[in-house]
Amino acid sequence: MKTDIIVIGAGPVGLFTVFEAGLLGLRCTLIDNLDKPGGQCAELYPDKPIYDIPGVPYQTAQEHVDALLKQIQPFDYDLLLNQRVNEIINQKDDWQVTTSEGTTITAPNIFIAAGAGSFEPIKPNIPTNLDPYIDKSVFFSIKNKKQFKDKKIFIFGGGDSALDWTIELQKIGSEITLVHRRDAFRGAPESEKIVRQLHNEKKIKLLTPFIFKDFVDKKNVLNLELLNTDTKQTYKEDCENVLFFYGLNKKLGPLLEWGLDNDGKKINVSTESYETNKSGIFAVGDINNYPGKMNLILSGFHETTLAVQKAYKRVFPGERVPFGYTTSSTQLHEKLGVNHKEK
Description:
The protein is of the alpha/beta class. Helix content is 22%, strand content 27%.
């Protein structure tokens, strides 16, 4: 298989790469080890609200993915799912990628848009084996918030996920309790403000400074043992679902074997084109590292837009990168299938 850009990762930044490349007439092949496009947005928090996409006041993560998929419909691209990249080989001016399914793709450009790399949720350090309860009564991510309707829920964590889901689930749950080990949070200040207001209005319960000690299953109703770290007193609380949002363990995994300059967690890039130390290999989105880096979807969109400019020059050496505004360029309108006929 021959293409112009191999995109490793089909999350939002990977999908937007197809759009920016398509405007320049470049074809992409996306590879993702998940069974659907969307990356972490679709896999870990499809119902989580997103408020910072320019021009879109509110979208769920899945709605954002769906909008990106609709946006790239005018362009031809390949989407290889349930496959991971096992090997990358340099072939003069091209790169050859081999996947876990034995698929071989050749291209002058590789875009690594793998988000946080390989990841797994951080689990509480307790004696009880949680495996039999995961996705039944114990959860580390939410794929369908409707399953928590009218449920009594305990949420553990102090970051954005814990705060955001406390705010969302209090709208449908019967009783929501947020538990954190200290009376300060790592999440967005505005989200913390809303959570504290909900607590003051008695719409949720906020327990700090508390930690989770263990639980015992009682006919699908969980009996939790909590410890107040100030008073050293223990408490028992019943609930129907427990959500742990302690964060993710993130690793570059096999990316470390590809000879890319990195800090052990992220791939180092230049901010001119977001190219790595390997010519023709770019890193865009949360996977990259540079001074002033911010892990935002909109930052990834900017990065891949500039990277595509450099990728075009590798596909067409010596040619000027074409530029046009989508608002006025008739050539871009043709590529996008814009119909100017009056109704």
